[in-house]
Design brief:
Length: 148
């Protein structure tokens, strides 16, 4: 398998993961309960909008690099429920759930980045690095919230 094909598969995996995470952040925004409701409600909203922006930018980049999206949205999001949302809307469980998803996403960024290094794709490296840093900051925020 050539490097370009592997690289595009990594980007598509990252796009799929971001769709899942955006969905879970939006659910968190609606369903959070507890003493930190208001602050977390707004934070989840900001974060799912950030992830949507990342998703849009990454998908455009993927298409520019000659990637082909699956023919239907259903194919693209077939794994949407791969990770079940907590049935208890306790803020600590939701934060931990979101942290788990963000850590998975962060790993996907590193996997995709490794393939851009092999292909000397500087613009993709810059995009992935910028987005990964934002995810890293978001992880830090939720880790702090989880401790309080």
């Amino acid at each position: 398998m050539n490097h370009q094909k592997i690289y595009l598969e990594e980007l598509l995996d990252l796009i799929k993961k971001q769709i899942i995470i955006r969905h879970h952040f939006q659910l968190s925004h609606w369903l959070i309960q507890g003493p930190h409701f208001l602050s977390l409600h707004h934070q989840f909203e900001n974060d799912y909008k950030m992830i949507q922006d990342h998703l849009d930018e990454l998908t455009e980049h993927f298409l520019y690099q000659q990637g082909t999206l699956p023919h239907s949205l259903g194919d693209l999001i077939s794994n949407l429920n791969e990770k079940k949302f907590p049935s208890d809307y306790n803020h600590q469980k939701i934060i931990q759930h979101v942290l788990d998803l963000l850590h998975e996403l962060y790993k996907k960024y590193h996997a995709a980045f490794a393939h851009t290094t092999n292909n000397s794709l500087i613009t993709t490296q810059d995009l992935l690095t910028t987005q990964a840093r934002r995810i890293e900051k978001t992880i830090w925020f939720y880790e702090q919230m989880n401790r309080s």
